[in-house]
Write a structure and sequence with these properties.
By secondary structure, this protein is α/β, with parallel strands linked by helices. It has a single domain, classed as Ribonuclease H-like superfamily/Ribonuclease H (Nucleotidyltransferase, domain 5), CATH 3.30.420.10. The chain contains seven helices and six strands; from the N terminus they run αααββββαβαβαα. Strands 1, 2, 3, 4, 5 and 6 form a six-stranded mixed beta sheet that branches. α3 runs parallel beside α7. The radius of gyration is 18 Å and the shape is globular. The two termini are 27 Å apart.
Length: 222
């Protein structure tokens, strides 16, 4: 949690923590054996129930976020997003209507949203088969809508910004996933991608959300 929030290198952890090799080794073990994923999903169910929702979602919102890749990101796992003018990686995420992370996939930034959405939605429906409706922006329109309906009998609804309005506009449902990206960016480790392996990037994102959810769960019910 300290590394994620402060954004420091593992070697720069304060002396009152265990040695950085011990902490990093535990981080890698929990990444490989799925512990971060298990903790995250358990807390997600608890938060949903606390908020009066069913433990398993029936709707989701998808989007992507391109971030700069540090020099620790190898050439094989990074790319250039011409639209965002970003050289690095892209986070493809699906969240529920509370903004809680359901699934995340990290790819080179050069992977287009529609291309990354298909494996992301596959992961989503394998993990949460009750999801029947997903909202997305115009970048996901086209054949993806037909594919999702045919493969999972689910609806992909495109939420577009009106061309008649100028300036900032809060769009239905899409603001929820943007808020999740905002939670990401509060943690300095997430302002860029510093991880050598994409699976480590996924784990860091899950740790961010573990922090968000534990704070929600420990707030007073009154």
């Amino acid at each position: 949690m300290y590394v994620v929030r402060a954004g420091c290198a593992w070697r720069l952890m304060p002396n009152d923590f265990p040695s950085w090799q011990t902490v990093y080794g535990q981080f890698r073990r929990w990444t490989k054996n799925g512990a971060w994923n298990a903790i995250h999903d358990c807390l997600c169910e608890q938060v949903r129930v606390r908020q009066g929702r069913n433990s398993e979602p029936t709707a989701s919102i998808i989007d992507s976020q391109s971030v700069r890749g540090a020099d620790t990101v190898g050439r094989s796992t990074r790319g250039y997003d011409a639209g965002k003018k970003t050289n690095g990686r892209k986070r493809h995420i699906a969240v529920d209507t509370l903004g809680l992370l359901l699934v995340i996939m990290v790819t080179p930034a050069s992977v287009q949203d529609r291309v990354g959405a298909k494996p992301l939605l596959w992961m989503l429906h394998q993990r949460f088969p009750k999801v029947v409706l997903t909202w997305a922006d115009g970048g996901y329109s086209g054949t993806l809508i037909v594919w999702l309906k045919k493969r999972f009998d689910a609806v992909l609804e495109i939420v577009k910004r009106s061309d008649d309005l100028k300036g900032f506009q809060v769009l239905p449902h899409r603001w929820i996933v943007e808020r999740t990206f905002g939670w990401f960016m509060k943690c300095r480790r997430m302002t860029a991608d510093y991880e050598r392996l994409p699976e480590s990037s996924v784990a860091i994102a899950q740790i961010v959300m573990i922090g968000v959810m534990t704070r929600r769960l420990t707030q007073s019910r009154n």
